Amino acid sequence: MSARRLELLLLLALVVVAVVAVSLGESPLSLAQYHQALSDPGSPPGEVLWTIRLPRVVMAALIGAGLGLAGAAMQGLLRNPLAEPGVLGVSATAGLGASLAIAGGLAALPGAVEVSALAGALLAGAVVVGLAARFREPEVLILFGVALSAFAGALTALVFNLSPSPVAMAEVLAWLMGSVENRDFTDILRALPPMAVGAGLCLYAAQGLRMLTLGEEAAQMSGLPMARLRVAAVAGSALLAGASVAAAGVIGFVGLAAPHLVRAAARDDPGKILRPSALAGALLLVAADLAARLIPTEQELKLGVVTALFGAPVFALLAWRAARSWRS
Amino acid sequence: MTAAWTIEGAKARRGKALVLDGAGLSVAPGEVLGVVGPNGAGKTSLLRAGLGLMPLETGRALLGGRAIGGLNPIERARLVGYLPQERRLAWNLPALDVAALGAPDLPPGEALAVARERLTRVGMSHLAERGVLDMSGGERARVLLARLLATRAPLLVADEPVAGLDPDAQLLTLDLLRAQASAGAAVVVTLHDLGLAARACDRVLVLDHGRVAADGAPLEALSPTVLADVFRLDGALVETPAGLVVAARRTLSQREREGPTP
Fold it and tell me: Do residues B135 and B11 share a domain?
């Protein structure tokens, strides 16, 4: 399948799933109500469709695309199909930023949690950019990512530990579980600029990611400005991951699963896989959010919980396969 | 004529160990230079330091007469194509796409045309669409050689290009590099097979402990003395109808001669 046909197919599937996701919800509508919603967006059914469900679906698609693209870029950069922003400690550090803001009583301040999460992600991104400039070995970056993740996780636990208010703790926990519930178009507009810049940087790095197929040294001698492309890939994926944590909390494994879904169709090409991964990520997250809404539970399922439940086994499966190929 | 590549008085460390201790090389357009030496003699380090991939403590490296440190990535790639010893590929790209990575300066269509032509030269055109990780080691080595040839650089540096290849593929590789030299390129290869080095190269540079032990025409550079001192071989290069071969047997090291210490 050509790259263009793959992208077209994914886009089509995304549109179909998005239309289904906007149509279906907890409060079922009758045919007459759908008609009313379409003809009069200000009517009560119109409110449900256009100001509750649509922004939620758009947000899920945006976050999914960002995470899918960030995951694909990280995998290309680290030459490892198990990499994603979480591996580099970006998600954990963004989660720490959000936790600090909530525990610090800033949750009521509009945008404070988001800014704090984005600041955490950018800090982690800056650390990774610095390390990437210093160490060329991808394994080293992964190890630093593990350390950064563990450290941010420990600090988040410390915030829990020292927080005097159980209410704040419950809020932090809710944030860390990840959700796109109750989002409006203002939230989307706030998430859009950092994600657009991040996506641009990742796509700019595509050629460098392809060259890295040959290994670090051959890429360095190839004539491409590898130092710059490497920084673009790290900064771009940090921005994407940070903005998505800022907008929706910690949602894991989309960055891992999305590239995996399209890898074969993209002929394993770390450059050509970027855009299909973004589309696949959007598709996955819109579908996962629809599942979170429709699965009847006492309390609505958190999106991050759903993706982790499906994603963690996928990760284990990928690790199993990778281990087998390393042995041979 | 300006040398395509010159390294002078190179001193470099890996960690604390001194891996280059004043070594150097010079290669002219049209020439095939073979770099030989025992394991750990500094062959790869000399190439890497000379290409700016490893810092030099003292000494200097010139590409096309210009200091390596003063070249930007594009200028450097225009002057030299490099095939590293490390041949592990990260992704299962089609062979054609891997070969095309040698020509990132060209528009995609032209790069693919160059890649197709180079794959034909290395006898791999029938596997152009096959994923490189689905190939045998020898097939993959040919694809990477095609990638090197696709750089169209006036200096080609190949680190152990024939390691792990069958005899036919070894000779094909060196024939292809020879053809590049005949077309005006300078070629530097590191090799372990001394006979192959003697037959395939115009000049042989012998490295030992980070220093140049000999540099000259094969018969001169691989003299019985050098074979004995550097490679611990008792023998000589011998002319045969098929070219030069090394006829030698292993000599005992000092420690082996003394036997186990009680």
Answer: no
Q: Are residues B54 and B184 in the same domain?
A: yes
- Put simply, the answer to whether A210 touches B101 (Cβ < 8 Å) is yes
B90: nearest CA partner in chain A: A213
Task: Tell me the chain B residues in contact with residue A214 when contact means C-beta distances shorter than 8 Å.
Answer: 89, 98, 101, 144, 147
Structural domain that includes position B58:
1-80+153-227
Third-level CATH fold of A3-327: ABC transporter involved in vitamin B12 uptake, BtuC (1.10.3470)
Chain B: which residues have CB within 8 Å of chain A?
48, 51, 53, 73-74, 76-78, 80-84, 86, 88-94, 97-98, 101, 104-105, 131, 144, 147
- To probe the interface with A, which of B85, B91, B112, B149 has the most A CB atoms within 10 Å? B91
Sign of the torsion angle spanned by Cα atoms B183, B188, B193, B195: positive
Q: Which residues contact B105 (CB under 8 A, 6 or more apart)?
A: A223, B74, B77, B78
pLDDT in tens, A247-301: 888 888 899 889 999 998 999 999 999 999 999 999 999 999 999 888 888 888 8
Write the DSSP symbol of residue A302. P
The verdict on a CB contact (< 8 Å) between A217 and B53 is yes
ipTM of model: 0.91
**How many domains, in total, are found in chain B?**
2
- Half-sphere exposure (Cβ direction) of B54: Cα atoms closer than 13 Å: 21
Element (H, E) at B20: strand B17-27
Name the packing angle between helices A90-103 and A226-248 (round to 10°).
40
Q: Inspect the interface and report whether the beta carbons of A267 and B92 lie closer than 8 Å.
A: yes
pLDDT tens for residues B149-207?
Answer: 999 999 999 999 999 899 999 999 999 999 999 999 999 999 999 999 999 999 999 99
Per CB-CB distance under 8 Å, the chain B contacts of A226 are 73
**What's the CA gap between A13 and A16, in Å, rounded?**
5
Q: Convert the pLDDT of each residue in A172-207 to its tens digit.
A: 787 788 888 888 888 899 889 989 999 999 999 999
Give the domain ranges of chain A: 3-327
Domain identity same for B117 and B161:
no
Whichever domain contains B211, its CATH number is 3.40.50.300
CB B220, CB B199: distance < 8 Å: no
Q: Which of B86, B90, B91 sits opposite A217 (nearest CB)?
A: B86
Chain B nearest C-alpha distance from A234 (Å): 18
Q: Tell me which residue in B77, B89, B131 faces A221 most closely, judged by beta carbons.
A: B77
Q: Find all residues with CB under 8 Å of B1, minimum gap 6, and list them.
A: B28, B29
